[in-house]
Amino acid sequence: MAIELILPDSGRVELTDTFRPRGRALNGLGDSVQAQIFWHSLDTTLSMLDSTTGATLPKFLGSGRLQAHTGNLFSNPQTVRILERLDSLRAAGATRDTLFVTPVPPDTLADSLSDSLSVQAYAFGGSPAARRVVYSFTTYPGIGPMVTLLPNDTVLTDSQGLAVTRLRLQKGGTVPDSVVVTATMRHVNGMLVPAPVTFVVEFRQ
Questions:
Q1: Distance, CA of 204 to CA of 201 (rounded, Å)
Q2: Higher-confidence residue: 104 or 128?
Q3: Which of 11, 45, 82, 144 is most buried as measured by Cβ atoms within 10 A of its Cβ?
Q4: pLDDT tens digits for 186-197?
Q5: Looking at domain 85-204, which of 3.40.250.10, 2.60.40.10, 3.10.20.30, 2.40.128.120 is its CATH number?
Q6: What are residue 11's phi and psi, to 5 degrees?
């Protein structure tokens, strides 16, 4: 027999966010069998709140190990990575910009790259590094994808919790009146971090 463990969100949790792992006992054929699973923590970074349900509270940054057992059968320890708890997302610079795109010389845009669209992530427990910020945009009027984001529409925060992208207007085609760019961030459990940040980039010819 063996015990199969399943950790939430690929084994990543945030500080103060209680989570519950799942486990099941397997027979020699790999089929699930009925058995009461009990849980315990092997490290002080994790506090076991209920050994029967596995409810666990992350207490410190870093990592911690969980183990389950039924009778004399013990699972392999599973590592949980404990991250800062995301608190909010805010603009880290100007939220409005104007691009002047009169062709000078012909067929060359005078300016096709916006100023930095910067956001700052805040978290309990420290600066959230290497966390995903997703930028999306809407053009007005809706003329199609004449703009792109540079370096990308998904940016990882740096060691200070900052994430930056820029809006690039592609050459040719119709120039939009404006583009609204929205930056969002999510907890590791998928819930949206308050509050999304909105940028407005206007175009003048």
A1: 10
A2: 128
A3: 82
A4: 999 999 999 899
A5: 2.60.40.10
A6: 80, 15
